[in-house]
Amino acid sequence: MEIVKLSPSVADNIWGGTRLIDEYGIKTDKRPAAEAWVLSCHPSGPSTVMNGEFAGKTLQEVYLNDKSICGEKGERFEFFPLLIKFIDAKRDLSIQVHPDDEYAMRVEGEYGKTEAWYILDCDDDAELILGFNKNVSKEEFKEAAQNGDIMNICNRIKVKKGDLFFIESGTMHAICKGILLAEVQQNSNTTYRIYDYGRLGKDGKPRELHVDKAADVTKLCPPDLTPSDKRKKEILDGAVKTELTSCDLFTMFKLDVDGEHSFNVGNTSFVSLLCLDGSGEVCCGNTTLSFVKGESIFVPASSGKITIKGNLEILESTL
Question: Which of the 8 DSSP states describes residue 202?
Fold first, then answer.
């Protein structure tokens, strides 16, 4: 399979804005455009291949036809392993939690969700909620979620552009208003909503909460945060490559290309390239794809030599 550009699936969640349309070139009739699933094999929003012999097919269809596109590291996964998205939070997201694999597979029939957020832009006073500001009991957690006191025991963190947050499954969290980010996560859409500020959904009714399930899976303690300034940086020909985070599920890099940069994609893993800023092109074999801010390119495992030309900021993700 050749390298392919992907068209995202877009979600119009009530808390979203329009920056993905206005600034990142995401094409959709949906308003707001809260999320763009730029690499997805999930049935709730699969990405679509835009070029080559599989043009018009979903990435999931291509994957089911040939799972080797994931590489050797993908063989241990029952489903396509990752989901990558842009998120534009014009308003606060609900306070929520995701289960781990064991609980999610048993109860929901899909993976749990460990994720990482790379802050692309944010308001000066923007913040996230991650975990608690103290240890709490299960009973205290459930009571606080039900009566609104959960806001008093949340751990709030000020954020800035360029921050990276790794959120392991079981960590209570919320993206708050004024944040634009890129998220790399397990291929799952299982979310347990804990608190939603009493707001109404599009149907005029309060959105469903999942407090009992959340109580089963939430880590009732302050988070363990790794400082985002401790990063490995590599000076390469035509590029600077910075490791943002790495775990047994995925690794994320920031790749700043200035001119021309080449690297090899072997049989270990696919590579996802997400353009965060700038413009240029990506070449592999006989295929050359233009590449601009907001676009997503999927590089199958064993693609060989990849050359990127231009001035670009890229989020590179692998297994």
Answer: T
Supply 97's token pair: 């939690």
Would residue 193 show up in a list of annotated catalytic residues for this protein?
A: yes
Q: Can you tell me the distance from the alpha carbon of 251 to that of 231, in angstroms, rounded to the nearest whole number?
A: 13
What is the percentage of the chain residues whose pLDDT exceeds 90? 94
Strand partners, 101: none
pTM above threshold 0.85: yes
At 172-222, the pLDDT tens digits run 999 999 999 999 999 999 999 999 998 988 888 888 999 999 999 999 999
Integer Cα distance of 287 and 282 in angstroms: 8
- Within 13 A of 319's CA, how many CA atoms are on the CB side? 23
Residue 124 zone, left/alpha/beta (φ > 0; ψ -120 to 50; rest): alpha
The stretch 222-236 carries a mean pLDDT of: 83
Looking at 193, 199, 207, 231, which residue is catalytic? Answer: 193
pLDDT of 200: 84
For residue 229, report the phi and psi dihedrals to the nearest 5 degrees: -90, -5
CA angle at 19 for the pair 18 and 22, rounded to the nearest 5°: 90
C-alpha pair distances (Å), 261 with each of 92, 153, 306? 39, 47, 8
- Helix or strand run (H / E) with residue 305: strand 304-318
Cβ-contact 255, 287 below 8 angstroms = no
